[in-house]
Write a structure and sequence with these properties.
alpha/beta; 12% strand; 3-stranded antiparallel sheet; 5-stranded parallel sheet; elongated
Length: 392
């Protein structure tokens, strides 16, 4: 395990020491997949290209159990290749599955969601006799792509938030002639050690520092750490706590960004949906809202830099705008927000109005005249204006 950790660290620069520990444990856990109840995903995400995401998959391909590398496979292939001893799926360019051009890949998305837990088969009509057939979905998977994956994937994943290397950060070049034999040797040693321990791993119920879905995802990694012994049990649990807390912060940040979009939409509405608002005017209104968190954001409240940074992920940025008085100023154009408002904070759909049932007009009946009313009418004026007298 120590040698594997050192080898991974030679080829990629990971976000933290905890992330390096997590990747090492994830690789080892792939060798005991048949003994696991949950198959954690590894989400290798970054803000741009060139962050080392594909290099991580290269290293994983040479160290995990039964790797299946793919860029754009069909759900039918994946359905049929997963069995009782599943492969480890390595999916590069996950943008093609979950991005706006995903198209008909919803089946693959559902497979990846279901495959996190054992006994969640996908049923399909198969064969010449068109019989309902259950296809296993349980398999560990690493997915690399630009930007966050869907919440349903991220919630089931150990998340690596990759960044571009700094000028002083060096890695060893990945060359097939030298790198692959070294990593394959480590893979074979891992398999020789862990394969006989699958029965033991199946019986282990390790104490976890987290709960619920996070515990399901990290349990296989902690099981491997407990099997390794030494410093690994404590190191694994420390990595688990640090990385799950980091994702909680990311979730809070995402929620905060959605709140910001809603508040900015409200400001535009209050200002009569102007074409653009000056940056300092927008900030002033946001900070004045006593119920919003913007006056206490950062150390001195939300400023122009914070605002631009929070909106950057939505493709929104300030630009010079000429106003009616002829002066130019940094401003945010309303049309920049329209797409983000529609995606992240759409207006609630008003309830459909109940259809008014119109009373059809009374049409005259042609033919025989109506029959006269039966009985006799009283003769003379009514008594006391109340109608005919009652009989005694």
């Amino acid at each position: 395990m120590d040698e594997l950790r050192a080898a991974i660290g030679r080829y990629v620069v990971l976000p933290s020491e905890e992330a390096l520990t997590a990747v090492t444990l994830w690789v080892a856990a792939s060798h005991i997949q048949p003994a696991l109840q949950h198959a954690p995903r590894l989400a290798v995400v970054g803000p741009t290209k060139g962050c080392g995401k594909s290099r991580v998959l290269d290293v994983l391909h040479e160290t995990v159990s039964r790797p299946m590398m793919t860029v754009n496979t069909s759900p039918a292939v994946v359905f049929r290749i997963i069995g009782e001893d599943p492969p480890t799926l390595l999916v590069d360019e996950a943008d093609t599955i979950f991005g706006p051009k995903a198209g008909d890949k919803e089946d693959l998305r559902g497979l990846l969601n279901a495959g996190h837990q054992r006994n969640r088969p996908a049923w399909r009509i198969s064969g010449p006799e068109h019989k309902p057939t259950a296809f296993p979905t349980f398999a560990m998977a690493a997915l690399a792509g630009i930007g966050d994956l869907p919440d349903t994937i991220m919630d089931r994943a150990v998340v690596l938030r990759m960044q571009k290397r700094k000028p002083g950060e060096k890695v060893a070049p990945f060359r097939s002639r030298h790198s692959v034999p070294e990593l394959n040797t480590l893979r074979d040693r891992l398999a020789a050690w862990l394969t006989p321990l699958r029965g033991t791993a199946h019986r282990l119920v390790p104490p976890m520092p987290v709960e619920d879905r996070a515990a399901d995802t990290w349990e296989p990694l902690v099981i491997v750490a407990d099997l390794a012994g030494g410093h690994w049990p404590a190191q694994a649990r420390a990595a688990c706590l640090a990385m799950t807390r980091n994702e909680m912060v990311q979730d809070e940040q995402t929620t905060l960004k959605t709140r910001l979009l809603r508040d900015i939409r409200r400001v535009f509405e209050q200002q009569g949906d102007q074409e653009a608002l000056r940056s300092h005017d927008l900030l002033a209104v946001l900070i004045q809202d006593a119920e919003a968190p913007w006056a206490e954001y950062g150390t001195k409240g939300l400023n122009a830099y914070h605002l631009a940074n929070l909106l950057r992920d939505f493709g929104i940025s300030p630009a010079n705008h000429r106003f009616e008085n002829g002066r130019q100023a940094k401003a945010y154009a309303r049309n920049q927000f329209l797409d983000a408002w529609a995606r992240y904070c759409p207006d609630p759909v008003p309830p459909a109005a109940s259809p008014v049932q119109e009373v059809p007009p009374v049409r005259p009946t042609w033919g025989k005249p109506p029959a006269p009313p039966a009985g006799t009418l009283p003769v003379g004026p009514p008594r006391n204006g109340t109608g005919p007298a009652r009989p005694r």
